Amino acid sequence: MLVNAVIYTFPAEKAEEAAGMLRSLRDRSRAEAGCITFDVSRSIDDPNAFVLYEEWRDQATLDEHYQTEHFKTFGVNGVRTLATNRLAHRCSPLE
Question: What is the DSSP annotation of 40-76?
């Protein structure tokens, strides 16, 4: 299993637009065969910050995700263009 954790920060005037894109990305990603979990949370302390927590079966399924139209639309050409900061970690669970 592979974990992908991403923290995004947006300008206040773009946070709601980003939230809508993140919901769309989440809903479509959950339907992918290799997706185990795809959750999006909004910070209580900073409502302009969002955390994505994703679990993928393996690197191959994550790579397939990166090629989907919804990832390109809502991820690369969507939230990434609105974000003022993006911190991503590709992880493996501790054994």
Answer: EEE-SS-TTEEEEEEEESSHHHHHHHHTSHHIIIIII
Give the β-pairing of 35-42 and 49-56.
antiparallel
Spatial CB neighbours of 81, under 8 Å, sequence gap ≥ 6: none
- On whether the CB atoms of residues 91 and 47 are closer than 8 A, the answer is no
Report the distance separating Cα 18 and Cα 15, nearest Å.
Answer: 5
pTM of the model as a whole: 0.94
The reported pLDDT for the residue numbered 32 is 97
| Average pLDDT of the chain to the nearest whole number | 97
Residues 6+ apart with CB under 8 A from 93: 1, 3
